[in-house]
Design goal:
Blueprint (H helix, E strand, L loop, with lengths): L15 E9 L5 E9 L8 E7 L9 H11 L3 E5 L17 H15 L5 E11 L1 H12 L3 E7 L4 H7 L7 H21 L19 H10 L18 H7 L13 E6 L5 H10 L4 E6 L6 H4 L6 H11 L16
Parallel strand pairs: 3-4, 3-5, 5-6, 6-7, 7-8
Antiparallel strand pairs: 1-2, 2-4
Helix pairs in contact: 2-3, 4-7
Length: 332
């Protein structure tokens, strides 16, 4: 049976409450998100909170909800969002991809969490899954309100767009790609709407696909992770922003705030996490999950190291005693 648009791809824990929320980023785009809290959360005291972004092409009802559900069970306030132009979030034209705006969406999540009287504004972290891993790091580079950042099965979308898979693209190939996008812009002008990169098909046919694409389709096309708002395609001309502006150029600026990088032993994307780990300043940690593939870190709760995520955020989102601080619950 086809999944209803308002359905989750996982089971909500009975001790967790999920509430749809809306707020705007600094570009004025309305962000659609789900707030996850423990049903018995004591709202009279401030709590640590986490903003969670989806895999590239994914929506909040998939991986972010899996993480939000589990972290809420462990006492965190969590908000899982749809990126601008995608899912239920606003923005026209649909399915634009922007490294700047997608990073801003994390900061907008921090803005929202900071309005909740039971969230401590000094104790907010971020998790980026797959492509959102790069965007979460981009946000943390310039937003010191993100006190700790974790990535899971990280993809650096801008890096692969500019340099090709495993940095295999030559300068000549890059220039040819720009010529192709320029041609597509004229086609978009003439058509009156932008063309999309390939979207997810209706049927899972792994025998006709390369291994990486087959793995993504195993999640997004089958009942395992399919959601009607997760279409997979982005406007072709979105690639220009990634090529020109999307580099993780300031990783060192995240320090002394901590970075946790989670990847799978068998993840095709592992090299992204390895590279960031090499380039980032301390404190940083790389966790390699034995036997895990890339997509397994979207939803396999038996493989996702939630104990590690809990300890990482508990340690790094711990209250600092100070007579100068005003508790969040005292704000009006």
């Amino acid at each position: 049976m086809p999944l209803h648009a308002n359905s989750l791809t996982f089971s909500l824990a009975p001790e967790v409450t999920r509430t749809p929320v809306r707020y705007r980023n600094r570009y004025g785009i309305e962000i659609a998100a789900d707030l996850y809290v423990a049903t018995d959360l004591d709202e009279s005291v401030p709590h640590p909170a986490i903003v969670i972004g989806p895999p590239y092409g994914g929506v909040k009802e998939q991986g972010p909800g899996v993480y939000g559900n589990e972290l809420a069970r462990r006492g965190f306030v969590a908000v899982a969002f749809d990126p601008s132009y995608n899912g239920e979030s606003g923005g026209q034209p649909r399915h634009v991809s922007s490294p700047d705006i997608f990073a801003e969406d994390f900061s907008a999540g921090v803005d929202y969490l900071g309005t909740l009287p039971y969230v401590d504004r000094e104790l907010i972290g971020a998790i980026g899954i797959c492509g959102s891993g790069g965007f979460a790091l981009n946000a943390a580079q310039v937003d010191p309100r993100i006190k700790a950042v974790a990535t899971s099965a990280m993809y650096d979308i801008s890096r692969v767009t500019r340099n090709g898979w495993r940095d295999s693209q030559s300068d000549e190939e890059r220039r040819a790609g720009l010529e192709g996008i320029a041609t597509q812009r004229w086609a978009d002008v003439d058509a009156g709407e932008p063309a999309l990169t390939p979207v997810f098909p209706h049927d899972f046919k792994p025998e006709s696909l390369d291994p990486v694409t087959a793995e993504f389709h195993e999640y997004y096309v089958t009942d395992r992770g399919h959601h009607p708002r997760s279409v997979g395609g982005f406007t072709v001309t979105s690639m220009l922003s990634h090529i020109n502006l999307g580099a993780l150029a300031h990783l060192q600026d995240i320090a002394p705030r901590p970075i946790l990088l989670i990847t799978g032993e068998n993840a095709h994307s592992r090299y992204f996490s390895d590279t960031v780990y090499e380039q980032a300043a301390e404190p940083k940690e790389l966790v390699v999950v034995p036997g895990a593939r890339h997509i397994d870190l979207y939803d396999r709760t038996d493989l996702i190291p939630f104990d590690k995520l809990e300890s990482f955020f508990t340690e790094n989102l711990a209250p600092v005693a100070s007579t100068d601080r005003v508790p969040s619950h005292a704000r009006t």
